[in-house]
Structure formats: structure tokens, C-alpha cells
Amino acid sequence: MTSPAAQLESALATTIEEKTARGRTDQLPSTKGWHPGARIGATAELGALLAYNDDGSTGICNLENGRGTWLNLQPHDRKQDHRPYSVWRWTAAYNGRPACLMGRLAPGAARLELHASDGTVAEADVVDGTFAAEIVVDMAGLRHARERLEAHEAASAEGRAEFERLMADSRTEMAKLKVRVYDSAGTLLYDGAAINATD
Fold this sequence. Notes:
Layout: H1 4-21, E1 34-40, E2 47-53, E3 58-64, E4 67-74, E5 85-91, E6 99-105, E7 111-115, E8 121-123, E9 125-127, E10 130-135, H2 145-150, H3 157-175, E11 178-182, E12 188-193
Antiparallel strand pairs: 1-2, 2-3, 3-4, 5-6, 6-10, 7-8, 7-11, 9-10, 11-12
């Protein structure tokens, strides 16, 4: 199952089925009007597919080994704060996983690139104004993320404090990535940090 439409359908069906079984029918996504957007990790162990609905709803489908497994509804796009894109989700690189950035491009923006300090560049998948990009980069502050977490009981005060430190380190490392956004003519619209304090 590698087509975006099939992955979206699978994620939507699973989400509705599991929420209904738990009696959470007030939180069900709409059953109609969904369209697949940009994606990363189409057949990887873990990936993501952005989705948007005719009614204005947006979401991110979790992908596992090429199958859509869950649809997380997103809040409506935040203000873009002078950037030609809004961020729906970002994930720093840790435990051997690439860093990723996903969201929506502003009208007039056509292409987005992620740039690492070592010169590595990753071009985002762009579909119907949504974008998804991942980049393999060494984030030094997160090299031992798993060991840092496993050194404490998860429910303990120390475990929670270490988790908060890791989140702060993740934000710091992710902000070191640069984004460049271009219009359809190749004109540079934005060149700056991948995320800001409100992402």
C-alpha cells in the first residue's frame, strides 16, 4: 500500500474505528472530503502523510511500513509570522532518525529546501500547497537522547525534567536548520531558521 490515497483511506478508517470503539465519537474526523498532501517515508518504518479536507480541516497521517495507521487532526494553520510557510509538525534528529519539517506553503511559494550546516540539502515534497521534508543530519546535542531518558524513571521528577531538557535541546538543534523557500520562478522568498519560538 504505497499510494497516498490508499494510505490516507487506511489511516482515516483506523482512526474512526478505534475512536468509535472507545466511545469518543465526538472527536471523529469527517469521513468525506479528504485529500492526500505531501509525505515523507512513504514505505519506511515510520513516515507521515499530510492531508487536507474540503471543509478546511487538516491532518497528518502516521505511516508505518507503508501503511496509514492513524490520522492526527491539526489545528488550523497558525499565522505565518512573515515566513512563506506554516509548520504543522517538526521532529529533531535523534536515535538514528532524520529531522523533519511539515506544513503548508503560503500562496505564491512553490518550493522549500532544508539546509544543514554541513552543506546537506533536502528538497521538500510539495503537494497542493502542503510540504514535507526530512534531512539526515547529526544533531550533536541529541546524540545520546535515548540514554539520557533511560537513565531515569519516566514518571519520576528527574525523568520529566530530563524530558523537558531534551525538548529544549531538540528545539535548539532544529533551529540550526535553515529553510529556503522559492516561488515558481525560482525567486528566493525566505532564507532563515527552520522553526521559531511559536512552532
